[in-house]
């Protein structure tokens, strides 16, 4: 009976079977095993089993020629099959040839090597094995043939040349080895090849030949194209020196210096050249070589050169020579600094200081010109402040050290033309230039310089110096004109007004001086008005103009009610010495006290009362003193809140306040406060008496 089922039914049956089996095989014990095996352990065991030695194959003993031929046939078939499978694997060819060589089948081995060379003639190992086989079997001509083919096919493989020359030398064929070397040199190989050739000739006492070949090697064309290295020149020169050809060695060094020139200078070449001359006792030549190199090589690349030069001077030089080395070293250091940052003016100052101490004028001027050429890129005065001192030092050097007035004048004029006077100026430069012209007795040029400075860029300092100059020359009319220009430029400058008035006072023109003071105090804006008013008042006092002085004080008090003005006014009335001066002085104090009642600055009011009390103690009666004492304030400690800048509370602080009797009489709150304090004091005394009654009884008995 056949049962027909669909594919879907069969699939469901299989799935149900698998589920039932998985349920049947479900692991109940899920605890870990006692012995755990990790993946690391499995890998380690596998590695250890790899190292186990397999049993060697059984040795087969060949007893007759037929077995040998059979063995050879099988092995050759195996090698040929390997080669046929992959012809490019050269190791199969080499194994095949070496097996044939072991059977003394040299012809077969040669055939295999030749077949391999047809496959890959660029394989270096193949050529080496081929040639070694021929040499091992004393087939010299065959080996020469192979080496010739190798160096012809691959001339840039140095190993072939080394092996070939070594074989010829071992065979005693010196001429043949030399011929191989000459063929090799035509290819211009690496340096070691040339050294090998030179050492080969030296081994056979052919000193002249290596000289010729080395000279050929070191000709400019070969050096530039193949090995443009300093060490090759040095080696050749030392070779000549070693064989006592000192003149030739010197020529080699000189030619090397000429060849490299200034663009490719190397300190090692000059150190070697200097040491050679030192060995020849040519100390002056050594010094010239070191200085020549140091002047042309940067300090960063001449550390070894400096070191050897210092050692040389310590051994053979004098103190002056050692100092020159130190100066040269510092000079190179400064050169590197200014090259790295040309606008580092501090480095320029140090460099110029060094050059000025030990150099000729032309060298110093050259450095100054290089320094001043580095103009600040931004026209802002703060960037020019250090730079301008380069010009100042340059001018002072020309005047004081070089003694050249004309160049000094040119330096000053060039610096003044360079400064952008429309944006800023340096009064120091104008003043130094004017003073220089005065020292040269060129008064007209000095005046022209100062006048130009005032016209282009007026400054207070320039006016003051120009006025001082004219005062020393007793040119008072010029001084008046300068003061007028000065006051037009800065009318708020009280010092200028005072100096101008003092000048007129010295000249005896009192009215003119008084007019100047009147103009000054009428200015809408002044930088130090108190100084100006004091000077004007002192001027009138000196002129004994009491009424004018009194009027000045009144005019000043209309502008300010400062306590010092009142005190000064009172002292003036006291010192006038006229009749009724004490009464006028007391009247001023009373007026000041009334005026300052509304003043918020209580310390100033206290200062006035203290001054008044001092006056009454010296000149007043007892009633006057008592009257002032009654006006003295009471010092009270108070507290107030403190706030920070952002408005938040910062706690409380204590301060002292002054309560004047006149203010207390007008304010009933203050009187109430005083009565409250008195009541509190009485209550406190009463409490103290209640707490200590025994003490009161004892005191009454006593």
Automatic annotation (TrEMBL):
Keywords: Coiled coil, mRNA processing, mRNA splicing, Nucleus, Phosphoprotein, Repeat, Spliceosome
Family the UniProt entry places it in: Belongs to the crooked-neck family.
Domain Pre-mRNA-splicing factor Syf1-like N-terminal HAT-repeats intervals: 78-203
Bias (Basic and acidic residues) ranges: 682-694
Keyword Signal on entry: no
Coiled coil: 582-609
Main function: Involved in pre-mRNA splicing and cell cycle progression. Required for the spliceosome assembly and initiation of the DNA replication. Involved in pre-mRNA splicing process. As a component of the minor spliceosome, involved in the splicing of U12-type introns in pre-mRNAs.
Residue span, Pre-mRNA-splicing factor Syf1/CRNKL1-like C-terminal HAT-repeats domain: 233-381, 402-554
Name of the protein: Crooked neck-like protein 1
Top-level taxon of origin: Eukaryota
One GO BP annotation of this record: mRNA splicing, via spliceosome
Region feature Disordered, mapped onto this chain: 681-702
Species: Macaca mulatta (Rhesus macaque)
Main location: nucleus
Compartmental location: Nucleus speckle
Gene Ontology terms: cellular component: nuclear speck; spliceosomal complex
């Amino acid at each position: 009976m056949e049962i027909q089922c669909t594919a879907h039914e069969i699939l469901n049956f299989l799935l149900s079977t698998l589920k039932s089996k998985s349920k049947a095989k479900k692991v109940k014990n899920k605890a870990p095993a006692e012995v755990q095996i990790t993946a690391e352990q499995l890998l380690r065991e596998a590695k250890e089993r790899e190292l186990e030695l397999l049993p060697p194959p059984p040795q087969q003993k060949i007893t007759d020629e037929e077995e040998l031929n059979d063995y050879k046939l099988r092995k050759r078939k195996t090698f040929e099959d390997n080669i046929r499978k992959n012809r490019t694997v050269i190791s199969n060819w080499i194994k095949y040839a070496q097996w044939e060589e072991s059977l003394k089948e040299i012809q077969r081995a040669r055939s295999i090597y030749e077949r391999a060379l047809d496959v890959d003639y660029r394989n270096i190992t193949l050529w080496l094995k081929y040639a070694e086989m021929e040499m091992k079997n004393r087939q010299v001509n065959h080996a020469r043939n192979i080496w010739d083919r190798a160096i012809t096919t691959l001339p840039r493989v140095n190993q072939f040349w080394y092996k070939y020359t070594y074989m010829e030398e071992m065979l005693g064929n010196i001429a043949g080895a030399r011929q191989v070397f000459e063929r090799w040199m035509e290819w211009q190989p690496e340096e070691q090849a040339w050294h090998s050739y030179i050492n080969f000739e030296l081994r056979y006492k052919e000193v002249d030949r290596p000289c010729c070949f080395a000279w050929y090697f070191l000709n400019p064309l070969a050096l530039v194209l193949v090995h443009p290295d300093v060490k090759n020149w040095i080696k050749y020169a030392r070779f000549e020196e070693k064989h006592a050809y000192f003149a030739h060695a010197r020529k080699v060094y000189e030619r090397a210096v000429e060849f490299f020139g200034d663009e490719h200078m190397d300190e090692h070449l000059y150190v070697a050249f200097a040491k050679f001359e030192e060995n020849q006792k040519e100390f002056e030549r050594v010094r010239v070589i070191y200085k020549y190199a140091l002047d042309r090589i940067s300090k960063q690349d001449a550390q070894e050169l400096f070191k050897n030069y210092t050692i040389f001077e310590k051994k053979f030089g004098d103190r002056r020579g050692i100092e020159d080395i130190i100066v040269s070293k510092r000079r190179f250091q400064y050169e590197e600094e200014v090259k790295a940052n040309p606008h580092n003016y501090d480095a320029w100052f140090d460099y110029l200081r060094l050059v000025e101490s030990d150099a000729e004028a032309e060298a110093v001027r050259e450095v100054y010109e290089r320094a001043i050429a580095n103009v600040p890129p931004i026209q802002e005065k703060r960037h020019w402040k250090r730079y301008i001192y380069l010009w100042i030092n340059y001018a002072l050097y020309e005047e004081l050290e070089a003694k050249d007035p004309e160049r000094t004048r040119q330096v000053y004029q060039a610096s003044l033309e360079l400064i952008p006077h429309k944006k800023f100026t340096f009064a120091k430069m104008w003043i130094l230039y004017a003073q220089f012209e005065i020292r040269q007795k060129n008064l007209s040029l000095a005046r022209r310089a100062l006048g130009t400075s005032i016209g282009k860029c007026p400054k207070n300092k320039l006016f003051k110096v120009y006025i001082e100059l004219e005062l020393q020359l007793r040119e008072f009319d010029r001084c008046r004109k300068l003061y007028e220009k000065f006051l037009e430029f800065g009318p708020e400058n009280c010092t200028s007004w005072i100096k101008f008035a003092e000048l007129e006072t010295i000249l005896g023109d009192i009215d003119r001086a008084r007019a100047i003071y009147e103009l000054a105090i009428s200015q809408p804006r002044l930088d130090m008005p108190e100084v100006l008013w004091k000077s004007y008042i002192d001027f009138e006092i000196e002129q004994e103009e009491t009424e004018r002085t009194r009027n000045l004080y009144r005019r000043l008090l209309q502008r300010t009610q400062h306590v010092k003005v009142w005190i000064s006014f009172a002292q003036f009335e006291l010192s006038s010495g006229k009749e009724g001066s004490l009464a006028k002085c007391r009247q001023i104090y009373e007026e000041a006290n009334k005026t300052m009642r509304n003043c918020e600055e209580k310390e100033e009011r206290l200062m006035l009362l203290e001054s008044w009390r001092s006056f009454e103690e010296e000149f007043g009666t007892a009633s006057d003193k008592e009257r002032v004492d009654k006006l003295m304030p009471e010092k009270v400690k108070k507290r107030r809140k403190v706030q920070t800048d952002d408005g938040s509370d910062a706690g409380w602080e204590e301060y002292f306040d002054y309560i004047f009797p006149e203010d207390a009489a007008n304010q009933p709150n203050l009187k109430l406060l005083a009565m409250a304090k008195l009541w509190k004091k009485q209550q406190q005394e009463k409490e103290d008496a209640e707490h200590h009654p025994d003490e009161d009884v004892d005191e009454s008995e006593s």
